[in-house]
Hints:
Layout: E1 2-8, H1 27-37, E2 50-53, E3 57-61, E4 66-71, E5 80-91, E6 94-103, E7 117-121, E8 133-138, E9 143-147
Antiparallel strand pairs: 1-2, 1-8, 2-7, 3-9, 4-5, 5-6, 5-8, 6-7
Amino acid sequence: MKVNGLICEGHGVASGRSDNQRYPRGTLRKQLPYFKEKGLDLSVYFLGTLNVDISPYHHKIGKPKYYFERVPWSDYIPPENFYFFDVILFFRDTEYKGLIYMPDPLTKVDHIQELAILELILPRISGLSYGMKVSIEIVDEQLQLFKL
């Protein structure tokens, strides 16, 4: 399924832009070795997330590309589960392949995302800023989108 979305500001913890006390280099950099040990190497991507508001759509988890249980990546919060789904972002006539990064809402204790916000892990993309329109394509079997 392909949907339009808007680039929006996130919490800033994945990249290390905020929450510098606990995660000075970002949560993704801290999680990187745990994911790599389980078969997912994120080092080819920018280690931050691009937040896309896909309102009025929400999502339902299908069969993720990757699912990791009880990852003990932080000294500050309990272990979390993580989902990853394939995604293609379309911006200025260019396709960028990456992943949707989704800490399991059942194990996530802070920095909660709204249901219409997807966090994308992609290569660095120049020229993007908050409020810009993009399109994303998702594999329906992995993540279903529906309108509320």
